[in-house]
Amino acid sequence: MKADIGVIGMAVMGQNLALNIESRGYAVAVYNRTAEKTRELAEGEGKGRKLLPAFSLEQFVASLASPRKVFLMVQAGKAVDELIGQLEPLLARGDILIDGGNSFFQDTIRRSKAAEAKGLLFIGTGVSGGEEGALRGPSMMPGGHRAAYDATGKIFRDIAAKVGDDPCCAYIGTDGAGHYVKMVHNGIEYGDMELISEAYFIMKNMLGMSHDEMHEEFARWNRGDLESYLIEITAEILAKKDGQTGEPLVEAILDRAGQKGTGKWTSQSALDLGVAAPTIAEAVFARCVSAIKSERVEAAKLLAGPGTVFTGDRKEFVEAIRDALYASKICSYAQGFSLLRAAAAEYKWDLRYGEIASIWRGGCIIRARFLGRIKEAYDRDPGLANLILDPYFRGAATVAQLKWRRVVATATELGVPIPAFSSALSWFDSYRSARLPANMIQAQRDYFGAHTYERVDRPGSFHTEWTKI
User: Fold this and answer.
1) How many Å from the N-terminal Cα to the C-terminal Cα in the chain?
2) Which residues are designated catalytic?
C-alpha cells in the first residue's frame, strides 16, 4: 500500500494532523528525525490505523504515491530549509512540499521559487487551531502554486473544520500568501487576547469584581455579539480553582506572557507597508512589558500612581466595558484587514477578504460570530477601503463610542494600563479626522532638513527658509 500523503514531524501538532488525515480515509506515511517518536505513534494511538511508519527519509519517500505529497510539520526557520535540502534529492518533478508550520512569509516566497526552479511544487499552509484543531479540524490557509493546491486541496478541505457544510479552508494565493494570512491571523489574535485581558484587569482592579462575577459576565457576553472561542475560554479560566488552595487559578499564574514572533512579524510588516496597526503592535508591546517582571516589581515601589477605586455605578460600567471591548475589536480587525489589503497590492496576491473571514469562523483561535459580519461586509463591497466604513461596523462603533471613551478615560484617570483599548480608540479618532497635525510634522521636517512640503491651496513641492524674516 502506498500512502496518499506523508507527514514529517511527530510532535503533538504533527501527530494530531496525521491522525486527522487518516481518520478521513487516507493512508498516511509518518516520519520523525527521532525514530522513537514514530514508533510510539505507530504502536500507540496509530495502532491498527492506515499509518505507514518510516524510519528513514528514503523509506518515507518510497512509501508515497506519486505525485508525492510531503507535509512538513517541523519548527519554522532553519529546520525547514535543512529538511527540504535532505528531501530534494529523493523527490521527483511534480512532487509537492507542504510547509504547515508558522514560517515567515518571505521565507515561503523564497522556498516556493527555489522549489519550482527544481521542478517541485510548494505550498506554505497556515494551520490554526492548536493541538485540538490539528486533530479535529483546523482552519487552513494554503498558499502556493495553484496546481499543487488542486492536487492537495481535497485532503485539506476534508480535514479542515466545518461551519455548516463549509470547510474552513480555501486557496489563498500564490507563494507566501497563505503564511502571510496566517501571520495576520496571529497578529489579530494577539490583539484579541490583549483586549480581553484588559477587560478582565479593569473588572478586577477597578470594579473589585470577584472571579465568579467575572466568569458570569464573560459567559453572558459569549451569548451575544462577542461570542468567540477566546471569550468562551476566558469565562472557563475565571471559573477554574487551584486544586491545592481553592483560590482562582488564574491569580497563581505569573504575569509574564510568552510569544513566538508572529505578532511581531505582523507589526513589522505593517511598518514596512506603511499601514497603521497600532492595536496589534500595542498587544505585542504589552507582552514585552510583561516580560520585565522583576523590573516592574521594583518600579512599583518607586513610581506612584492614582488610586484605582471606582466610585460609579458598577453594573452600568460593566456594560460600558463590553461596548468598549466590541468597538476596540472592530478597530483591531479593521487594522488587520487593511494590512491584508496593502500586502495584496505589494505582493500581487488576489486575496478574497470575505473568504478569509469565512475560513476563520471555525477551527482557528480567533473563531467568532463576529467573523460572519466581516464576511457579509466584504460580500456587500469586495472593494471596501476599510472595514470600519461598512454600515454595520460604522454603526456599531458609533453607538459604542461614548461608553468606550468613558472606559478609556476612567481607566486612564485611575492608572489602570489599557494600551490596546486606548490605541484602538486613538486609531478610530485618527481615521475619522479629515485633518491631522501632520502639517506641523511636515513643517518641522522642512525646517531642519529641507524635506519640502505640499500645500493645501496649490499643487507642487515647497520649501521655506524658516529663519529668514
Assistant:
1) 89
2) 182, 189
